[in-house]
C-alpha cells in the first residue's frame, strides 16, 4: 500500500486529489495539509511514501517544505504540483530534492501512475519535460566550472550516460545512441546514481549542469 500526503492551500484542489487517490486499491491518503509547515508536521506523524506538494503556499512554501522533508529521516518522495510546466519555482523545488512534478490539470490515470512510479523509486521527469527544464535552467543559471573530483568516481561510460541523461534522453534513446541494451543503460544509471550519492534521475540532471559536465545553450 502506497501512503500519500496531499499538501495544497486550496481546499478544493487538496480534497480533489485526495479523493481521486482514495479510489485506488493500492493507494491510501494518510493526511492532508494546507501549507508547508503543516505538511512537515503531518508527514512526521504519518510517514508517507509520497507527498503531493503545491509550490506556492503561504508561510512555509512547497520548496522549503520539500527541502525539510527530503532531508528528514523518513525522506518521503515529493511530487511537485504546479499550474504551469515551466513554473519559475519548479527548478528550485527539484534542486531541493523533489522527484518530479505534475501539472494540476493532470488526468486521473496519469496521477495514479505518477504516484506509483515515484513510490517505486523512479524519478517522474519525462524526457520532454527534462528538455524544457534544461532550457529554463540555461536562461536563469550559469553552470559552475567542471568539478573533476565530483565525477572522478564514474567510469567513462557512466560519465557518458550521465551526460545523455542530462540532455533529456530516455533509457531507450540512450540505448539506441550507445548501441547497447536498455538493461545495460539501467545498470549504468543505477551505478552512476550510487557513486554520486544521488536519489534519482532528476537529481542527476541537476548535478550534471551544476558541475559543468553539460552546458546548456542559452535561450534566445
Automatic annotation (TrEMBL):
GO molecular function, one term: DNA binding
Any coiled-coil regions, as ranges: none
InterPro entries: CheY-like_superfamily, NreC/VraR/RcsB-like_REC, Sig_transdc_resp-reg_C-effctor, Sig_transdc_resp-reg_receiver, Tscrpt_reg_LuxR_C, WalR-like
GO terms, biological process: phosphorelay signal transduction system; regulation of DNA-templated transcription
SUPFAM superfamilies: C-terminal effector domain of the bipartite response regulators (SSF46894), CheY-like (SSF52172)
UniProt-listed PANTHER family: TRANSCRIPTIONAL REGULATORY PROTEIN NARL-RELATED (PTHR43214:SF24), TWO-COMPONENT RESPONSE REGULATOR (PTHR43214)
Protein's recorded name: LuxR family two component transcriptional regulator
Species in which this protein is naturally found: Asanoa ferruginea
Amino acid at each position: 500500500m502506497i501512503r500519500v500526503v496531499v499538501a495544497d492551500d486550496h481546499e478544493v484542489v487538496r480534497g480533489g486529489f485526495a479523493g481521486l487517490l482514495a479510489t485506488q486499491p493500492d493507494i491510501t491518503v494518510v493526511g492532508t495539509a494546507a501549507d508547508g509547515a503543516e505538511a512537515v508536521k503531518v508527514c512526521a506523524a504519518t510517514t508517507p511514501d509520497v507527498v503531493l506538494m503545491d509550490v506556492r503556499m503561504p508561510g512555509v512554501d512547497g520548496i522549503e517544505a520539500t527541502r525539510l522533508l527530503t532531508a528528514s529521516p523518513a525522506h518521503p518522495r515529493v511530487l511537485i504540483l504546479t499550474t504551469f510546466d515551466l513554473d519559475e519555482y519548479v527548478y528550485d523545488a527539484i534542486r531541493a530534492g523533489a522527484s518530479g512534478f505534475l501539472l494540476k490539470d493532470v488526468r486521473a490515470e496519469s496521477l495514479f501512475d505518477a504516484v506509483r512510479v515515484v513510490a517505486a523509486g523512479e524519478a517522474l521527469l519525462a524526457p520532454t519535460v527534462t528538455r524544457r527544464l534544461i532550457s529554463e535552467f540555461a536562461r536563469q543559471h550559469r553552470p559552475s566550472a567542471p568539478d573533476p573530483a565530483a565525477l572522478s568516481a564514474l567510469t567513462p561510460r557512466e560519465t557518458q550516460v550521465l551526460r545523455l541523461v542530462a540532455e533529456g534522453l530516455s533509457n531507450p534513446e540512450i540505448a539506441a545512441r550507445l548501441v547497447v541494451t536498455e538493461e545495460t543503460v539501467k545498470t549504468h544509471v543505477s551505478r552512476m546514481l550510487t557513486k554520486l550519492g544521488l536519489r534519482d534521475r532528476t537529481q542527476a540532471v541537476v548535478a550534471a549542469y551544476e558541475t559543468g559536465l553539460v552546458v546548456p545553450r542559452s535561450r534566445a
